[in-house]
Amino acid sequence: MSLGMSSTLMAQDNPPAGEAAMAELAALEQGNASLPRELPSLPELFARALEYDAELSRQRYEYEATQEEIPMARSRLRPQVSASGSYLWQDSTNIQTSPDDFGLDQPAQRPGEIDETVWQVQLQQPLFSLERWRGVNVATAQVSAAELQVAVVERDLALQVSEAYVEAYLAAQRLGLLETQQDALELQSRQAQRAFDLGIGDRINLLEAQSRLDRAISDAVLAENELDNAISTLERLTGMTPEFRGLAVGELTDVALERDWGAPEQWLAQTDQNLNVLLALSQQEISVADAGTRQAGYFPEVNLNLSYSDRKSDDQLRESEDYRASVEVTMPIYRGGYTTANVRQGQRRIEAGRAAVDNERNLAVQEVRQRLRSLNGSVRQLDALRQSIQSSELFLEAAERGEQLGLRDLVDVLDARASLYDQRIQYVDTIGNYALDLLALQSAVGGLGTNDLATIMALLASMTDLSTLTSASSG
Predict the structure, then answer these.
(1) pTM for the complete prediction?
(2) Residue 92, SS3 per DSSP
(3) How confident is the model over 58-71, as pLDDT tens digits?
(4) What top-level class would CATH report for the domain 3-79+129-298+339-474?
């Protein structure tokens, strides 16, 4: 039996069924088209994460704690004043306190039992201490490194929020497309079953329709799980639960993409601004300053000491009031090899710091090259998918017209529509990969700012059918 004859028979046997199926499909598409809602603002979510994230809060407190290293180091160069006091009770037996015990016939010169109190004030001012001076440089370098560490955590937080946002968006779009595709495949399966029952269809088409329906149901469950996981991540990072369900895919062929990324050398030259590279350089500066402090162990120290003490005692010979002033020079001569080993350890840490800088720079270069290749590949893939979608839309129009003329049956129309959904899902996923690569590229050549997040949000909004897109402009 020819295709035209089978289509004619289906229409003659039960024409209202085909019309009802098409009307049902149109109602489903119209219902999905009425779902557009406001797209959550990515910059606002990131701003919320900056206040809410516990790891960033911890790092900020670490930075504030590290800032105290500078006044602590400077304090070692300033006068050190201390006060002390003591109480003494003493019972002594000697020739002066008990002369009778020694066979002497004379009165005791000093009391045997005494109470004594002493208090003292001391001041020490370092006059020359190379180790203490260089300790200030170490503290300054530590504060700079701690500040960069906060910037690294903020950048990582921006990446985490953006990646979770993109994943949630893609999962929501994929879920919406899969649910609509599932509705179309259910109609296709029913029509295939009806054709098989009428004897004008074969079992292979029926099993294929059921297989595609089962696959769409499975993919929808997976997309829903991915959406829940991404929203859970955003909730952990921001303390908010953004709503992505109900987003509708717009006209994908109108999405504007950046195509000219310039020479790779221009991007590679910016890797020196990578925050991990800058942090490694700052940590190397700490190693250099620390090595200088260790080498100062070979130099002498000169201190000025001033003190005042007052001793009150039952023994008048022990009572005193003293004023002292002294200049003390300390020169290390031999400490069992500690200073030499300490200096060698500092030099090795400098070399380790250089290696760490090279490693971070190499990682940044590799990341830039990989992301540029991926971006260029995504652009070519999206161009091919755009052509494929346009061809599938033309094929769907032809199938619908053929169904109206009796040259095609409803199963062919629904099959063409399901294939179009498959291509749109692939296009959305590729856009997501493009957005993630763009985020990673910007991160590899520096930090991520609000403008970068707004760019990603604008890209996603451009392929979203939103009737009230207010968050994109406010973000």
Answers:
(1) 0.79
(2) coil
(3) 999 999 999 999 99
(4) mainly alpha
